[in-house]
């Protein structure tokens, strides 16, 4: 009997009016911009090339709207999972990135994130553990399937680094752009395989665990 492989596709939400300008965190009511909706439509087309088993999404509007484009293209329903939520940045919510970049704490965020907890929020380590728990639960529910999880940049980058065996302090070296697809295969007989990171153009139909 050949080993069973479950594949998770991790998709960052599309662009919003604050992308690259503010640290939105879990701000409610933040929707996709026109560009973000176009990105969501493009990634939906790419994902619809695959035989998908299920769609999961962070409950925030920007991820739900991104996921809905794929739901419309595939006929699958979107299942909300709070484990896929954005990092809770607490008192930093809504701050300008340019202002934060001038603070001493920002250097810790960039270079030693494993030791940082956002004031009034969660730590990067807590975010990673939450994501790992969520993805373990999701893939256990769909053995042998191909599941899409719509989430956010830092949670996706952190879990990719984790599955690569990379220390959390180095996860900022990974780039995860709006509506990019990263894929991890979980064979039943050995360690996870990261199939692609930050994919925005190529066909997904040829993704295989080799």
Automatic annotation (TrEMBL):
Q: Record's InterPro entries?
A: His_Pase_superF_clade-1, His_PPase_superfam, PGM_Phosphatase, Phosphomutase_MSMEG4193_put
SUPFAM superfamilies on file: Phosphoglycerate mutase-like
- Protein name as catalogued: MSMEG_4193 family putative phosphomutase
Q: Which organism is it from?
A: Kocuria carniphila
């Amino acid at each position: 009997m050949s080993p069973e492989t479950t594949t998770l596709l991790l998709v960052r939400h599309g662009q919003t009016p604050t992308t690259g300008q503010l640290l939105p965190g879990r701000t409610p009511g933040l929707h996709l911009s026109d560009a973000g909706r176009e990105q969501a439509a493009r990634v939906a087309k790419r994902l619809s090339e695959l035989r998908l088993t299920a769609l999961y999404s962070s409950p925030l509007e920007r991820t739900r709207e991104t996921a809905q484009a794929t739901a419309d293209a595939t006929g699958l329903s979107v299942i909300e999972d709070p484990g896929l939520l954005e990092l809770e940045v607490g008192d930093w919510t809504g701050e300008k990135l340019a202002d934060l970049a001038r603070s001493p704490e920002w250097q810790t965020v960039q270079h030693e994130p494993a030791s940082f907890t956002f004031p009034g929020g969660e730590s990067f380590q807590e975010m990673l553990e939450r994501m790992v728990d969520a993805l373990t639960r999701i893939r256990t529910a769909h053995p042998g399937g191909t599941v899409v999880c719509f989430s956010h940049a830092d949670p996706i980058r952190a879990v990719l680094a984790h599955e690569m065996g990379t220390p959390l302090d180095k996860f900022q070296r990974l780039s995860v752009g709006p509506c990019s697809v990263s894929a991890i295969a979980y064979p039943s007989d050995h360690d996870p395989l990261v199939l692609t990171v930050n994919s925005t153009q190529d066909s997904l139909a040829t993704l295989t665990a080799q």
